[in-house]
Amino acid sequence: MKVIVVDNNFSESKPQAPIFSGIADTALLLKNKPFFIPEFANPCIARPFLVVQISRLGRSISERFAHRYYNKVSIGIIFTAQNLWDEALKEGRPCDYARSFDGAAAVGKFVDIPESTQSFSFPARFSINGTIGYDSANMNFSIESLIAHISQYQLLRQGDLLFIGGQRESLEVHINEHLDGFLNDEHLLSFNIK
Q: Which of 26, 88, 99, 114 is least enclosed by beta carbons within 10 angstroms?
C-alpha cells in the first residue's frame, strides 16, 4: 500500500501542478491508537487532511474517469517534526524523515461516498485545543485531477491512500491532549496524544 501526500492543494495562489510525495506505510496510525510525540519532534505540528482510498488498479487515468477510482473518504492528520522540517528545507535536503516516522499519519474510519455525489464538497472539522474548519470546496485541485496527475507517474492500487491536501493552518500538539475529527458531522477520528 502506498501513502501519497499532496502538499500544495490549499496554497494561496493556485499552482501549476500538484506537488506530492510518498511517506512510509509504517507512518500510518489506525484504529484511534494514541500518538506518541517522538523526542526529536520539537515542536510537533498537526495538520488536518481529507483522505481518499483508491478502489481499483489504474495507471495514466483520464480525469473524466478518475471518479471511478475512489469510493471511500476519511479524515486524517499528518504530524511533522517542525524543527527537522525547517532544518532540511534550510539545507536543501529532503524533508521526508520529518513526517514519515512511525505513527505520523493518523487516519480515521472510512465512509462510503455515494456515486451520486462524486465531485462533492466535504465540510470537516478537527478539534485540538480549539477547532480547525476544513472544506474541500477550497482546494486548488479536485480529487479527480489529483488522481489523474499522480497516476501519470505511479501505478495506483486498490487500498492506496491519498492525503489530498491539508489547510495551511496547523496546530502544535502536546502530551495529554485529545484530538477529534468530524466529517459531515460524523465522528471519524478520536485519539490521545502521549
A: 114
